[in-house]
Write a structure and sequence with these properties.
Layout (H helix, E strand, L loop, with lengths): L2 H26 L6 E8 L10 E4 L2 E10 L8 E8 L11 E6 L6 E5 L14 E5 L4 H37 L3 H8 L1 H22 L2 H10 L22 E5 L1 H4 L15 H9 L4 E8 L5 H22 L7 E8 L8 E7 L16
Parallel strand pairs: 1-7, 2-6, 5-7, 9-10
Antiparallel strand pairs: 1-4, 2-3, 3-4, 5-6, 8-11, 9-11
Length: 359
């Protein structure tokens, strides 16, 4: 074998090995495989660079080919990616591209989610949806905001603690109403007498001639039940739904709170049990004639009876169902009115209200 032949053979073998190495490296970098292009638009690429990995299901299946700035200030950054064609079975038109990083401060890469089974397949060149990228600077900014808020809260707590110390000192020295009540037995005796008087007024209300028949027929012995779910006033916002009833058709007598046509309330009850609501208020108003105190008590009793029927017959969050006795009607309704007002949100005015009545 001549020297020239051996030299030629060595050169050919070297070129073959070099070609094989180039092919293997190119295959590793997805240069010579069967690929397709895919695009996604981002408001910011958060440090992503060309040549970065593209992963599908956590596996490297492509690279970022180009990153182009938008042509207008209101546009988005266009990221073009090379993906291996073996991903077309799982990457669909409803897949989402997201820019992520290796750890907290590692290199950026694009992660593409699996598409749904029924979504259309990709042929190449399509644009898929993108998710906003996570930026470490945003995390630090939010952490600073949380620390500032925590410091303000600590300052407020410290100020409240100082105020409590001042109030406690005044109470211990007998200053102010509470301090005098605690340190002066005379004021305590007067307060006890006032509470006793309130109980006596409640007992008198129980025997009010207007509600005597109502208590007897409904089985209630404690008048506090009637105002247990009452609010002080209606919310300022407009109700999303209103049910209006004529008391003449709903109750058996003009001066009574006993239902005679309760089935007419079923439409409102079905709405309350099937729809989400923030607050519902049963309001009652009597005719504009008669004694004002008696009409106030009657309106409270009627709103209570309507509420009880709805709660007993229709499953709902009854803590959101309130009552409001309005006394005499202020509009032109000759027989008064019963309304069920339904609001989207629970307002701050929904607070308990106490009512007393005269004998």
């Amino acid at each position: 074998m001549s020297r020239s032949f051996r030299l030629g053979f060595f050169i050919l073998a070297t070129l073959a090995i070099l070609a094989a190495g180039v092919f293997l490296v190119g295959r590793q970098e997805l240069k010579f495989g069967s690929n397709y292009l895919l695009r996604s638009d981002f408001t910011s690429v958060a440090g992503l660079s060309e040549g970065a990995d593209v992963r599908v299901g956590g596996i490297r299946k492509g690279t970022v080919q180009t990153i182009r700035l938008p042509k207008a200030p209101d546009g988005k950054v266009v990221v073009t990616m090379d993906l291996s064609r073996d991903t077309q079975a799982i990457v669909k038109q409803d897949s989402v591209a997201a820019i992520q990083s290796e750890g907290l401060l590692g290199d950026k890469f694009v992660d593409i989610s699996f598409g749904s089974v029924d979504a259309a397949s990709l042929k190449g060149g399509e644009t898929i949806e993108s998710a906003p990228p996570f930026d470490v600077s945003d995390l630090f900014q939010k952490a600073n905001q949380i620390m500032d808020t925590s410091q303000d809260a600590l300052d407020s707590i410290q100020g409240a603690a100082d105020n409590i110390d001042v109030i406690t000192a005044k109470i211990n020295t007998g200053r102010g109403t509470i301090g005098k009540l605690i340190n002066d037995t005379t004021l305590y005796q007067q307060a006890t007498a006032g509470v006793t008087s309130i109980h006596e007024d409640a007992e008198a209300m129980q025997h009010n001639f207007l509600l005597r028949g109502f208590f007897k027929s409904q089985g209630y012995t404690n008048p506090a039940e009637i105002t247990q779910h009452q609010i002080a006033q209606l919310p300022k916002e407009q109700p999303v739904k209103t049910f209006l009833f004529n008391p003449k058709n709903l109750f058996d007598k003009p001066d009574a709170a006993k239902l005679k046509n309760e089935k007419s309330l079923d439409a409102a009850g079905q709405f309350l049990q099937s729809q989400k609501f923030g607050l519902a208020v049963v309001t009652a108003a009597t005719a504009r004639t008669g004694d004002s105190d008696k009409d106030q008590v009657l309106s409270e009793g009627r709103s209570f009876v309507v509420r009880k029927y709805l709660v007993d017959h229709f499953p709902m969050d009854d803590s959101r169902l309130k009552t409001l006795g309005q006394g005499k009607a202020t509009d032109s309704s000759p027989d008064g009115s019963i309304q069920i007002l339904i609001y989207a949100d629970t307002p701050a005015v929904a607070v308990p209200r106490k009512t007393t009545a005269k004998n």
